[in-house]
Amino acid sequence: MNEQNLKPVRTTEEAKAKGAIGGKKSGEAKRRKKSMKAAAKLLLSLPVQGDAEKQLVKLGLDPADADNQMLVMAAMFLKAAKGDVKAATFLRDTAGEVPMTERERAEVNYTKERLKLDREKLNYTKERDKEAPPDEYESDGFIDALTGSAPEDWKDE
Fold first, then answer.
1. Are residues 54 and 108 in the same domain?
2. Which end of the chain is more exposed for a tag (fewer CB within 10 A), N or C?
3. Euclidean distance between CA atoms 84 and 76, whole angstroms
């Protein structure tokens, strides 16, 4: 966007009007993108025919699986097999085998270490609580006050 083309908004009404126009345009763009996505899905789901189907069967695929999506994946596989690194990366990423970045690996290690320390702390607390006798503390009369003996317990002598 060219900053020189921007014109300042002078009134609230003008701002509302321009905002409404922008909202409508945004909705139109979203609908166009959605329809393009639907079209792409439709094209990929269509069955292949002729030589393309024969090539997929030749690769060992079931003819029932022979759609355009499988054709694209097979083409990328063949390119990757010939040494095309981009095709190999595409296949790996599409298969969900995306390698972690150093930062992601560090975050996973940090989380594991944190969980280990939390577990150790919990185990320590459990062991400490087992060792402490339950009646270790001297009564301050609070429980008795709750049971109704407060006037007798708190008499001034």
1. no
2. C
3. 9
